[in-house]
Amino acid sequence: MLTSHLVPAAFLLGASLSTALPTSGSESAAGQCSPVSFKLSATAQNTIFASPPDPSNETQILNFITQGLSAGGVPTAGTQTVSGNFTIDAIYCKPSPGVVGRDAVQILVHGILYNKTMWSGLGFGDQYNWHAFANDRGYHTLAIDRLGHGTNPQIPDPLNVVQGWLHVEIIHKLIQAVRTNAANNALDRAFGKVIYTGHSYGSQIAPWLARNYPSDADALVLTGYSNSPNIATIASLQYRPAARVKPQRFAGYPLGYVTQSNATQHTLSFYTGAYDPAIPVADLRFPDTVTDGEASALSGQLLFNATGYAKPVFIATGVSDVFFCSPPLATCNAILAATGRDVFPTASSFGYFAPEQTGHDLSLHYSAPLSLCKIHEFLEGFF
Length: 383
Prior knowledge:
alpha/beta; Rossmann fold; three-stranded antiparallel sheet; hydrolase; signal; hydrolase activity; AB_hydrolase_1
């Protein structure tokens, strides 16, 4: 059984949304995509860690990450100002000429161990391709590489620079650029509406963005997310420095950039239920990273809610997501409803969807087309 809920500001549970799956004809209207890069200046107050690991000691780094992802986190010693000029690579896709376009762009922000390519479905067809689905409905899409990830040319200090606080400030500057067609807007046009769309870590930093900059996003779509993370499961992931797991791809990266080292564990953690078994195999051929700074500053970010954000929010998380939900369906639904109530108490509208037989990588399971339908049906009421 698959259900979704649309909830007004009072967060009263509503009736299921009625959604028709797209036809094969509509799926064929793929968008037009091209690589773009943004040059952005940003300043953040990043976390100072009281007992940082030796950057040349793998054991210390991995222990630090495990402690940072565990309940209680690692000791901190205030904040420090981090500033810089950053290059953010992205894939920009726009509707095909035959599709009526909207004055709205979805900014797609990936999770840990991934980059901008995850939104394209890893080459397994349009049923997994967020760009194709959204473009076919008139939305423009912009999948970005967060700082330190993907094809971004800079490899900043992983502990002190690449943290969620700086990600938020960079994304804020990017949103400002695409709203105004400023000189640093690589899209060469302004958008009246911006939809922030995150997955996992990309969703976890959204409340901070919405709280600090409530006018940035006209709606939030958060996948693979809740405010009830399974900390023990997240902390148990087996990491190693990416430069040692994939030396050709990550040559020259500091040891604080780590990736999944156990293929079996990755599949069991990110894929649950009904999925094409070829997808996790392809997934692991091209891994990305998480930094010790991202992982260890995360516990502080989870404490924030988006009080003051008064626009629509939709959460889509698989019932079998081992990190952020829990079967049965009723339990997962209760977690997502509570997340909306507690993290986004002033949202103008709130909806959620929990597909069964679906794990953490929501858009890479067989249920992906239905999840995309539910999300875009919710957006249809506002854009």
